[in-house]
Amino acid sequence: MPKKKTTKKRGSRKRQSKKNPPLTGINIETPGMIVELEGHHDLDVQSQTIPSVMPVMPVRGMVMFPGTIMPISVGRPSSLKLLEESLASSKVIALFTQKDEDIENPTIDDLYSVGTAVMVLKLIRQPDESVQIIVHGLGRVTMDEVIKTDPYIVARMKPSEEKLSSTSKTFSAAINQLKDQARELIELSPNAPEQAVTVLMNIEDPSNLADFLVANLNLDPTQKQDLLEELDIAKRIRQVHQHVSMQLEIQKLQHKIQQDVQSSIGDTQRKFFLREQMKAIQRELGEEGEGEDFLIRLREQLDEADPPVAVMEEAQRELSRLELIPPASPEYSVISNYLELIADLPWNKLSEDNLDLERAQTILDRDHFGLDKVKRRLIEYLAVRKLNPENRGPILCLVGPPGVGKTSLGQSIADALGRKFVRMSFGGIRDEAEIRGHRRTYVGAMPGRIIQELRRAGTKNPVMMLDELDKLGADFRGDPASALLEVLDPRQNNNFVDRYLDVPFDLSQVIFIATANYMGTVPGPLQDRMEVIEIPGYTDHDKLVIARKYLVPRQLKENGLTRSLCAWQASGIRKTIENYTREAGVRELERQIGSVCRGLAAKIAPLTPARRKSKKYTVDAKQVRSVLGIEKFMREDDIKITTPGVALGLAYTTVGGEVLFIEATQYPGKGDFKLTGQLGDVMKESVSAALSVFKSKAADFDFDLEHLNNHDIHLHVPAGAIPKDGPSAGIAMFTAITSLLLNLPMKSGIAMTGEITLRGKVLPIGGVKEKTLAAARAGIKTVILPEDNRRDLEDIDPQVQKKLTFHFAADVSDVLTIAFGQPRLKAAIKKLKPHPRKATSEKK
């Protein structure tokens, strides 16, 4: 009997597996989520009963269904403890899905009430100490009573009784239709395994069929949980039918799109496959017209910009090309960017000029102190614009040392005219394409800086400041200075062609104002296109007024101080100017004023508001000394000369006028001549000329030239780290050599400038204003200038003329008379030893 019983059981098992085989996971939409497991012990699973008390393992992001096999990764300490303790006695556990996936340690309230009892078929330990289990779903269970929660949840379960509310022919037809749609969905799914259809058609139980399909559909965990909790099989079948129908429609649509694309392209159009597929998708979504909308909008912008006829024709040609190019093509973005640039440029947008000269004068006086000559020239410029608006006018170039207000003058001009202000810094630019742009054939091509700034300004006639023009460089990428020749020519720039734009743009309405510190590095052709306006440095009186009117109020505001807390006296400002700065501009002066204000702010900040109201600091010379420390410059010591071989020269550099100390010394040697101090070629030539002039006049000094054959001369210009060059130090070199060889120190407080010829003539030089201003700043009392520079006296600031005494020299003898004094010079000549040959003849 047992044998027959066993045979019957096995036979019934075989018949049951044919009708309702184990629902091995066959994922239709997301392959790999549910795997097929061979040898999963069907007999053990079918005979397994669901216990009434089971441990509960929370899972997240998934829902387990009866009859399915699924791998689950376990990493929580509580879940690992559950497996360790429960699998030894029973392989059946309950899986309940979390409501919120982000909860790390869920409680009973965080789990859905309906779960699935599963049998653990296999346990695999991973190298990272996690565990993977393979489970087989047994049936739905509902949590009835919680027995314990620590270290894991154990609860009493009651099985969920399913019911079949309908067994009519309509229900049978619905099941058959569901199977047909599911088979069609599997066949359309590219990743479905081959045995999926066979498994589907062998499922006869409606509940198993619904669970099999829903487990493999691409649904949210919430949707799957709703289907798990649905105990009415007929309702569950209808809901699964809806989901299968929806996903089948999606698959059919995708398949249709793919077929439409494949039928619309030929062998020669394979490279457009992805673009055509995108078009087909947009056609199905009703978004086909987005590219057309862009073209319509671009055409409207071009009409609104109203460029010249030639430019509009070029834009229309490019627009016609754009209509034929697919949006995904790289050339599409290149052409669209080009057309957007044309549409954004201000072809006809002009700012209305405000040519009120009194208002312009008020603005210039408000923003800048002094600079009367520069302001007068700017007012003349505006007056001509008022009388003749069509006049293009010259290109102005403001030249002067740093910190004198060149850039801010451009801003004031823009404010006076009511125009936009654009500043372009050319410092360090070496690529010609920065001016003219790159051709569109290059990857990442862009228009030049001129066109870019006009696009940002939004007007055709801004005030454009070309800052630091003397800092332009040149290398293998071209010469930007040469590219500016067309830009800065009023007769040519009405048809300026940027390489990227490739159509002419009228720059004649732009007011170009260039700035430079030194014109020596600016190419001659570029200088020829500009009107140079020199801006001299400020005198001490100017700096005092500027500090009172502009710098002190600005620094008080920036450092949170007021005039009632910090009152600057004239003595404090003068102390800062004379002993802590030595510059042509006022930038360092403002920094030193800011240092004093910060020092006082550190003292005021700890005080209470009541003490601050009663406290007041007076910034005088003593207060400045206590904050800034030891004086940087002591003018009286700088100009005191007591040693032969020292002379003071005046030079004009990129930072304004400078006082040069020229030192010469001699020592026994072979008649060599050594130069140090980072001298340029021109200055080295001046030294050689000065020595030759002295040798030619040695007889006048009764000097023995044999002495030079036995001694070496070393001439040095201190501050060797600073490059020095120029033709204006010739007489200073000659005076230093003469002072050395005659052993006669020159008078203190005398500086000189001028070039020297081999005949001893003193030639005129430039930069007289800057050089005399530097001499006044250094505390020098007397300046020797070439005779031909006498006419430059009227350009020197009256404040400087009051501080200096001017002497003019036409020959080196005039220089020596002024530098040494005639009596001292004669006395020095008498002290020289007699000529050796002359002494020998007297003995005979």
Protein architecture, described:
This protein has 844 residues and is an alpha/beta fold. The chain has 5 domains: 19-266, Archaeosine Trna-guanine Transglycosylase, Chain: A, domain 4 (Roll); 290-344, no CATH class; 357-534, 3-Layer(aba) Sandwich (Rossmann fold); 540-628, Helicase, Ruva Protein, domain 3 (Orthogonal Bundle); 636-831, 2-Layer Sandwich (Ribosomal Protein S5, domain 2). Helices cover 45% and strands 17% of the residues. It contains 33 helices and 24 strands. The strands form 7 sheets. A 5-stranded mixed beta barrel has the order 1-3-4-5-6. A 5-stranded parallel sheet has the order 8-9-12-7-13, with helices on both faces. Strands 16-17-19-18 form a 4-stranded mixed sheet. A hairpin with a 6-residue loop joins β10 (496-497) and β11 (504-505). α10 (290-305) runs antiparallel to α11, α13 (357-367) packs antiparallel against α14 (372-387) and α20 (540-558) crosses α22 (587-604). The protein is elongated. The termini are far apart. Mean pLDDT is 80; it is low at 1-43 and 835-844. The active site is at 728, 771. ATP binds at residues 400-407. Its main location: cytoplasm.
Largest sheet: 5 strands, mixed, barrel
Low-confidence stretches: 1-43, 835-844
CATH level 4 superfamily of the largest domain: LON domain-like
Gap from first CA to last CA? 168 Å
| Secondary structure: number of strands | 24
Tally of structural domains: 5
What topology, given as strand order, has the largest sheet?
A: 1-3-4-5-6
The helix content is 40-55%
Radius of gyration: 48 Å
The averaged pLDDT comes out at 80
Class by alpha and beta content? alpha/beta
Anisotropy-based shape: elongated
Q: Approximately what portion of the residues adopt beta-strand conformation?
A: 15-25%
Number of helices: 33
CATH topology of the largest domain: Archaeosine Trna-guanine Transglycosylase, Chain: A, domain 4
Assigned CATH class of the largest domain = Mainly Beta
CATH architecture of the largest domain: Roll
